């Protein structure tokens, strides 16, 4: 029964013939989430990148995003070592000639996740703070497992920075054209109360991105 498993998926035989349970890496997904921030209803589209894309794909995804949470795991030094490169890549790709001189880069937040795993820690808080100071970017250490509130702060910060930059004023956001690649990525409603009215902002989240 496991012969039909996709490459990269581990198939576990089930109790019946022609039945199996597959343990696959999660598919790349855009999560739609709605939140009220500063009294405004905000619709987020959050791309959780798979982390194995080629440079063209990563470029498309960076172009699509309006703001970026560059997330590493405090238990994984390699993911931390990727942060600086990704931040430079984001700035480089968004440094379009259309941006007037002196205009700002898209909001980027550096996030150290899994701070609850204190005994497995490989990246200190100080390391994270020093990097964020060097790159002049906001920094948060969070545990998505333990704290919903800490996670919300990351997205609030990105939203508030976008509003501060004045590219989008409340009620006026218009989605830019998306590439074929981005259209193919499935969307999943993270909230049943989401509707099509209001603004929609896109955030790219890079986690444990491994370079080619
Ligand atoms: N203890 C702890 N575990 C976490 C936390 N955040 C995520 N995890 C766990 O880490 C594992 C990976 O989480 P994912 O959300 O799949 O993260 P990912 O970066 O997409 O995963 P990989 O691509 O497999 O590295 C899962 O087992 C999560 O439950 C956290 O804050 N604390």
Number of strands: 9
Distinct ligand kinds: guanosine-5'-triphosphate
Number of helices: 6
> Compute the gyration radius: what is it?
19 Å
What fraction of residues sit in β-strands? 25-35%
CATH topology: Rossmann fold
Q: List the uncertain runs.
A: 1-22, 192-197, 208-212
User: How many distinct domains?
Assistant: 1
Shape: globular
Mean pLDDT across the residues is 77
Which class do the helix and strand fractions yield?
alpha/beta
- Main sheet: strand order: 7-6-5-9-4-3-8
H/E order of the elements? EEEEHEHHEHEHHEE
For this structure, what is the CATH class?
A: Alpha Beta
Give structural attributes.
binds guanosine-5'-triphosphate, hydrolase, 212 residues, 6 helices, 9 strands, alpha/beta, globular, disordered N terminus, 25% strand, Rossmann fold, seven-stranded mixed beta sheet, disordered C terminus, two-stranded antiparallel sheet
Structure in words:
It is a single chain. With 212 residues, this protein is of the alpha/beta class. The chain is built from six helices and nine strands; from the N terminus they run ββββαβααβαβααββ. The protein has helices at residues 55-64, 77-81, 83-94, 125-135, 148-165, 180-184, and strands at residues 10-13, 20-23, 29-37, 40-48, 67-73, 108-113, 139-141, 187-189, 199-207. A seven-stranded mixed beta sheet has the order 7-6-5-9-4-3-8, with helices on both faces. A hairpin with a 2-residue loop joins strand 3 and strand 4 (40-48). The protein is globular, with a radius of gyration of 19 Å. It starts with 9 loop residues before the first strand and ends in a 5-residue tail after the last strand. The relative contact order is 0.23. It binds guanosine-5'-triphosphate. Guanosine-5'-triphosphate binds next to loops. It catalyses: GTP + H2O = GDP + phosphate + H(+).
